[in-house]
Amino acid sequence: MKKISWIRKNWLLVAGLSFVGVHLGTYFIQRAAKSSAKSSLEIKSKGLDE
Fold first, then answer.
1. pLDDT at 12
2. Rg of the Cα trace of the chain?
3. Are the C-beta atoms of residues 33 and 26 closer than 8 Å to each other?
4. Cα 14 to Cα 6: distance, rounded to the nearest angstrom
5. pLDDT for 49 beyond 60
6. Would you list the DSSP string of 8-30?
7. Global pTM?
8. Would you give the DSSP letter of residue 1?
9. Other beta carbons within 10 Å of 14
């Protein structure tokens, strides 16, 4: 009898964790991009005021 690998045995768990990981990654990337855009707008508006 062949030994079944851990990933094949727990494929649903692996797929679920991968799904959650991808979505958390994109969420943090979007937050970083949003805060970066916000700070660059603040710098531009300070430059216009002076």
1. 97
2. 22
3. no
4. 10
5. no
6. HHTHHHHHHHHHHHHHHHHHHHH
7. 0.65
8. -
9. 13
